[in-house]
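User: Can you fold this complex?
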Amino acid sequence: MKLPNVFSNPANIRSCPAGTVIFQKGDEALEMFVVQSGEVEILINGKAVETIGPDGFFGEMSLIDDSVRSADAVAKTDCTLLPVNRHHFLFMVDETPLFAIHVMKGMANRLRQADQRAAG
Amino acid sequence: MKLPNVFSNPANIRSCPAGTVIFQKGDEALEMFVVQSGEVEILINGKAVETIGPDGFFGEMSLIDDSVRSADAVAKTDCTLLPVNRHHFLFMVDETPLFAIHVMKGMANRLRQADQRAAG
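Assistant: Here's the predicted assembly.
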């Protein structure tokens, strides 16, 4: 899913070399991220639970429920990220229902994976 | 969060005595449910992972990603449920961004709980 151009201004793109800690569990959260290139790993208590590639997103939970980060995010490879702050996020949900469905699909997918981990 | 009256027509309300199996893992899914009264338990492999009370909702994941049920849902007490089918769900997301945020908050809450189970 492509974000509107207003959000994908190249000036906003953040470059992260492999190994960069993007955020850590407990951090205050101001934005979510859409991966433009490369891969980001999500870790819970040091254990990788998900790898997110181009067009995937992460960090949306803290925007939704206004809470601190629940996991760590680390650049698995060199990567470029598009930050989306809370204001932009709410604007997107408001103006682009497909964006809301896209975010919900990503969350549903994570919930199913989490359920499988719990069951396994 | 209250749903628009068009969805809460009393004719649509479903009454379930305690112990009723509302759906089971693997079932085809046509609707999500908003709890009007009573409590519903969500079980994964026979283990209760969540109890949902009045104004809570469940069963949204299958509507979002068009897949089969990933858990069992059983009436913990006598309860009344308002079914919301896919058409209504997409209409609500389209017309009521607050509904989309409400659903996302519920999913974020479940993800945090699932992460805690995995970490524990």
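Chain B has a mean pLDDT of 88. The CA atoms of residues 2 and 14 of chain B lie 17 Å apart.
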